[in-house]
Amino acid sequence: MPVVRDLRVLLRFQGFRHLLAVRLLSQGADGVYQVALAAYVVFSPEKQTSAAAIASAMAVLLLPYSLVGPFAGVLLDRWRRRQVLLYGSLLRALLASATALLILGHAPDWLFYLSALCVTAVNRFVLSGLSAALPRVVDTERLVLANSLSPTAGTLAATAGGGLAFVVRLMAADSNAAVVLMGALLYLCAALATLRMARGLLGPDRAPVRPRVAAALAVTARDLMAGVRHIAAPPRREAAWALVAMSLMRFCYGALLVMLLMLCRYALASSTDAGLALLGLALGISGAGFFAAAVVTPWAAGRFGPGRWIVVCAAGAAIMELALGLPFATVPLLVAAFVLGLTTQGAKIATDTIVQSCVDDDFRGRIFSVYDVLFNVAFVVAAAVAALMLPPDGRSVPLVVTIAVIYGAVAAGMARFGSQ
């Protein structure tokens, strides 16, 4: 298979092998942790979950990162990225263990969300660091290939971790705390894997600086404005358009995820366990779509160009989401999960490649942090919109049509930019 051959080529780079191991363990732990949280918040039999409750949980977990995210970029351009990965993984292991204790102790919801929020905030440092470091471990000719396989492999690892968490959750009663502890162990393994890389391997090239908090606050606005000016300049305007397009596609994904959660919880399954199993199946099929994107995108991006490939992905998502979503039936929704996994991940691979190719190394950390902020804000806004539009059972024709229109607008906008 071409994807196997391509992976063998990349694995010849020792730095890439080590960075990939950290990504797989880290995102595998993310999958375990996120499923444990979803099971606890959405699928606990004693909780009557609503779309508004799901939106509130997403806001608590993700929206505060709009404040943390810019600092991640500033610090990633000053700290050794390898050290960020190491200490970030150790801190997540500790925080995940604390979350498990809170579940066992039946702590108040606000304390549980605070612990989960801390894990999510640290995740953003780690994920931004992994993306910013990738050009340091492969050559320029193989950057598109690395962007195709590495993040997709991480997504598959998160899917596999989520699948493992689903199995443990369904086989054992009251197992949420055990699943969270399993995630903590994987975070610890990611920290140990980081030690295989040299301190300076992942950059940045400048000497590491540990600014005081006051100094970091003072330089954040200036550095971020410099990053915005950098990406808005004509030679890098394609990257700005790609970020906007990907943020809108993330909005669509977030709204559809809330709808899927509600459908699995109330409309398509007879019990909470059956609903959780159906959700796990849908996410697994979506993971297969991510894998398909890794296989197809290098060829497609090479043939059409990354920008035009985003157009194809958005247009395909618009058509298929409308056709498969409106029946609100199990089989079409599972097919839609595969299609949206393929198109979303394909567009993300193309966007990552455009951003990394256009942005100078000294700016990559802050640009990818802004990238993550846009992702999270789009996701939270999508959850809020879905909460307003979704009925109690999750079936909403207006929401499905609205999402299809947004996908179509993304395709049209990117096509128009590409024609200029």
Number of continuous helical runs: 15
Overall strand count: 0
Order of helices and strands: HHHHHHHHHHHHHHH
How many distinct domains?
1
> So what's the overall shape?
globular
The CATH architecture category equals Up-down Bundle
Structural class by helix and strand composition: mainly alpha
Return the average pLDDT rounded to an integer. Answer: 83
CATH class: Mainly Alpha
Q: Please give the radius of gyration in angstroms.
A: 20 Å
User: pLDDT below 50 for ≥5 consecutive residues: which ranges?
Assistant: none
Structure, explained:
The two termini are 37 Å apart. This protein has one domain: MFS general substrate transporter like domains (Growth Hormone, Chain: A), CATH 1.20.1250.20. It has 420 residues and is mostly helical. The mean pLDDT is 83. It has 15 helices and no strands. Helix 2 (14-41) runs parallel beside helix 7 (143-171) and helix 3 packs antiparallel against helix 14. The longest helix has 33 residues, at 272-304.
